[in-house]
Amino acid sequence: MNHVQQQSDGRKDEESALTEFLASLMDYTPTFPDELVEHYMAKSGFQCPDVRLIRLVAVATQKFVSEVATDALQHCKARQSAVVKDKRDKQGKDKRLILTMEDLSKALREYGVNLKHPEYFAESPSTGMDPASRDE
Amino acid sequence: MSDGGGQKTTNQSRNDEFVRATARIAVAQICENEGFQSFQQSSLETLADIAVRYIREIGKTAHFYASLAGRTESNAFDLIHGLEDLNLTRGFSGASDIHWSLAASNTVSEIRQYISLSEDLPFAYSLPRFPVLRERKLPPTFIDIGEEPPGEHIPAWLPAFPDPITYRHSACAIEKESEYGVELVREQRKEGLSSMNMVQRPEPNYGEGAGLATDSGVAFKARRASEINPFLAPPLQFGEKEVSPVVLPSKLSEKAVVVNRALAMETFGPGVETGRSSLFESVGGKNNNYNNNNISGTRPAVRLKFRSGRKFLATSMDMISQNHEVEKIASCFEMDEEEDEEKRRAKPILTETMEISRGFAQL
């Protein structure tokens, strides 16, 4: 009996914590606007009049994107430091941090997203080939 | 990484573009907050696309769990369940627990931590509610008009039939018709619906007594049209108008044809092929059809002109070909006796000309 009571008490606590959390969501403004999230949720069939749930999704997506961005930034910084180590005379050649496809694909791989990007686009199939072997 | 370009066009893609642009802005804001100073365009688009897909995936799984529980509206637990599913690959504390409750899910607590750590970063612009719904002007129902629907099978809550004036053919109706058509076209342009095309002209096939009315209307219109354009007049019946009778020439009577036919058989004799004889029979049978054509005596006889030998150089080939053609034609139709004689005369001369031409060719 006691055990069951404890369980039910525990559940009540959890639920109250959840409701508190959802209430606190209204104070926080996520970067993804409500309209945007609502539009895409409606597209997939999600139906809920509660705004707090929309906010929850928005926050979850924001968390996801920021994590990916952080990982990509780390990759970018790591590459820059590697470059600087080779040539000490040039002081941090490129201080600008740019989000590149390479960093992004490395970061996303941990999240299960396989991103493959073509390195370059050629005009014709024989571009960049040896002029001797090129068929005229 | 954008959607297959060129598949969606018109309003759909415009809507999509706007939403994607806002997502791109939001993602850029987040990345800037992290520390990035600039982005590659393709990478920003890719990340925005992934964020959109993430949102859609959460929505999909939440909807799935709600339907699984037999509900149409999702609740918080469905959402948390969906989030857990997505974060399962990454892993969160408590993922491997056998007994777990969604309320105490660690995914939520992780989000809570994130909120407490990060600052508020509101969206840069204010967005209106979209998609913008336009008020559609619905056609009035039978109840709205206060009309009784014609026939028991038509419920009263359906849109009413258009005014019979709009589709019946009459002088004043044409103006109204054009108005109606113009209105429809305007509506069509506003809403961009192609279904309106089918409704452009209501068919006058329904309604009691409308059938009779339209018949008289059609006849009336026909009469009016005939006054204007004689080509559209209804055809005249037999005996309506007096016309002069046709006088057949005596030569084209049946008797003449039979006589000529007998003559033709005699002149040709055994030389006539069986095929040709069948043709002659058919000519005799279709006597009436050949009343207007020139046969036997009425057709002008073929005259062959023979010039001196010198001129044969220039015209020998033509002459020969002409003679051959004439022979062919003559053999197909009935011939007179005089033509036959000429043919006999022509034959030795023909052979002569051929020899001469050959001689000249050798030179």
UniProtKB/TrEMBL annotation, chain A:
Annotated localization: Nucleus
GO molecular function: promoter-specific chromatin binding; RNA polymerase II general transcription initiation factor activity
Keywords: Nucleus, Transcription, Transcription regulation
GO biological process: transcription initiation at RNA polymerase II promoter
Gene Ontology CC terms, in alphabetical order: SAGA complex; transcription factor TFIID complex
CDD domains per the UniProt record, alphabetical: HFD_TAF10
Similarity remark: Belongs to the TAF10 family.
Task of the protein: TAFs are components of the transcription factor IID (TFIID) complex that is essential for mediating regulation of RNA polymerase transcription.
Listed PANTHER family: TRANSCRIPTION INITIATION FACTOR TFIID SUBUNIT 10
Descriptive protein name: Transcription initiation factor TFIID subunit 10
Lineage: Eukaryota, Viridiplantae, Streptophyta, Embryophyta, Tracheophyta
UniProtKB/TrEMBL annotation, chain B:
Domain of life (superkingdom): Eukaryota
Localization per record: Nucleus
InterPro entries with a match to the protein in the record: BTP, Histone-fold, TAF8, TFIID_su8_C
Boundaries of every Bromodomain associated domain copy: 16-92
Leader sequence segment: none
Keywords: Nucleus, Transcription, Transcription regulation
One GO cellular component term: transcription factor TFIID complex
GO function terms (MF aspect): protein heterodimerization activity
Family listed: Belongs to the TAF8 family.
Protein name: Transcription initiation factor TFIID subunit 8
Organism: Nepenthes gracilis (Slender pitcher plant)
